[in-house]
Amino acid sequence: MAASKQGFFLSFEGIDGAGKSSHIDALARALRQAGRTVTLTREPGGTPLAEQVRTLLLHEAMDAHTEALLAFAARRHHVGHVIAPALARGEVVISDRFADATFAYQGAGRGLDWSVLLELERITLSGFGLNPDAVLKPDLTLWFDLPAATAAQRLAAARVPDRFEAQPEHFFAAVAGGYARRCAEDGARFARIAADADRPGVWQQVLAAVQAHGLLEGAA
Ligand SMILES: Nc1ncnc2c1ncn2[C@@H]1O[C@H](COP(=O)(O)OP(=O)(O)O)[C@@H](O)[C@H]1O
Ligand SMILES: Cc1cn([C@H]2C[C@H](O)[C@@H](COP(=O)(O)OP(=O)(O)O)O2)c(=O)[nH]c1=O
């Protein structure tokens, strides 16, 4: 019987237009080719209930507290029904955004108090692992760091904006600052990807970060 593999939780983060989506599927494919079972998911969303919350968050006007409470409620359902069970089965979980997005968008972007978000994170995400006091965090977060002006140029050419993507450039500069703060507070978990590189250059950085954690060794 093959040795059982340990679960690994990987999140992709960055402002809208940073280029995450261009690499998530490729990474899942590469991990599957290397013999791993991969659960690919996203936030807000990831369960039928949380996908309904996503529709509300992206399309209904609301204040920042309501956004954060809905994001964390959806996240708890997502962790309980999808992420924690997949990790317990030894799978690699890749989530397109996780809790750092709430700190960046609702905290730095919309001005919600950082300590309130830390408390919501603690209440919502503890009790899932073996240690009931531990807050569930990704093992590795790939943070696509891109100047807000560059992301805006990319998005203008790409798609019809949702409620967040329609925000002005200074909002995304603040959101990027929120990601930088989370990275400064928990540096070992983060790999900063210089997302202004061309696609092959970004992919090489993604690969290197994942390999540094013992996944995909030898892939090029
Ligand atoms: N390295 C890159 N250089 C230039 N354009 C890119 C790069 N990566 C992605 N793009 C383009 O930028 C836009 C946003 O990329 P996307 O992957 O949808 O970003 P995100 O998922 O982070 O919002 C898309 O039109 C995409 O084709
Ligand atoms: C997870 C999360 C996302 N968001 C925002 C960030 C994005 O603008 C939006 C949806 O993210 P995303 O899936 O990246 O959008 P798209 O499918 O258009 O690429 O929700 C928050 O404001 N708070 C959160 O907690």
From TrEMBL:
Q: Which reaction does it catalyse?
A: dTMP + ATP = dTDP + ADP
Q: What is its EC number?
A: 2.7.4.9
Q: Does the keyword NAD apply?
A: no
Binding positions for ATP?
14-21
A single GO molecular-function term is: dTMP kinase activity
Q: Where is the Thymidylate kinase-like domain?
A: 12-195
Alphabetical UniProt keywords? ATP-binding, Kinase, Nucleotide biosynthesis, Nucleotide-binding, Transferase
Q: Does the keyword Protein biosynthesis apply?
A: no
Q: Identify the enzyme class.
A: transferase
Tell me which family the UniProt entry assigns to this protein.
Belongs to the thymidylate kinase family.
HAMAP family recorded: Thymidylate_kinase
Role of this protein: Phosphorylation of dTMP to form dTDP in both de novo and salvage pathways of dTTP synthesis.
What protein is this chain from? Answer: Thymidylate kinase
